[in-house]
Structure prediction request, 259 residues.
Amino acid sequence: MALFLCLLFLLVSSATACDRCVHQSKAAYFSKASALSSGACGYGSLALGLSGGHLAAGVSSLYKDGAGCGACFQIRCINSTLCSSKGTRVTLTDLNHNNQTDFVLSSRAFMAMANQGVGQDILKLGIVDVEYKRIPCEYKNQNLAVRVEESSQKPNYLAIKLLYQGGQTEIVGMDVAQVGSSNWNFMSRNYGAVWDTSRVPTGALQFRFVVTSGFDGKWIWAKSVLPADWKTGVIYDSGVQITDIAKEGCSPCDDGSWR
Prediction:
């Protein structure tokens, strides 16, 4: 973990440290949002509640082996005749295997980049040139949540899915322990937003997360999340929310003029 944080610091410090950097690429779209909700992050139908169906599949540099799942972006196409200067916000829910575009959006998100009344015209283009930037995810009155996956088998195996992750960060490490204990067991990312362990403590469970923040990272501690009688298929409130922003390296920084 110390090596990861050191490398992260070196990467960011090699350029101007910014809250947001603007990137240029292309974006296409899927005709059905269900194609993205059933994607590599594993959100399933829950993805549709993350950003009103404004979903995105991102290339591997954005997906980050699953660490990018749930990340929020503001994206706009650069055709000023068709597209608004503000663009739209999307949540990453899938891996885009086509390197010709950084994003494949749901059709709802693709149309939302357009000026009023010309949504169908932008759909006809299929692929458009875009600018995008990472932005904080905001879930009003909603904490980070933990869903116990159906593959979990007490007391030998626990798999959880993280939902409603706020801030502009990635969760890069996770541990579990019995509430009140300091005997932590590490969890591994199984795929996407799903973490698991075969070393399941007994009793009620607490979690701690390593998230990217500022130049490096920090621990966030959810002191009481799963009850002793936790059940599969149930979503539990962690009692905490992430609001941190991880710095990016670029020059110049985004000036915040997307309005």
In short: The longest strand covers residues 216-226. The radius of gyration is 19 Å. Residues 2-13 form the longest helix (12 residues).
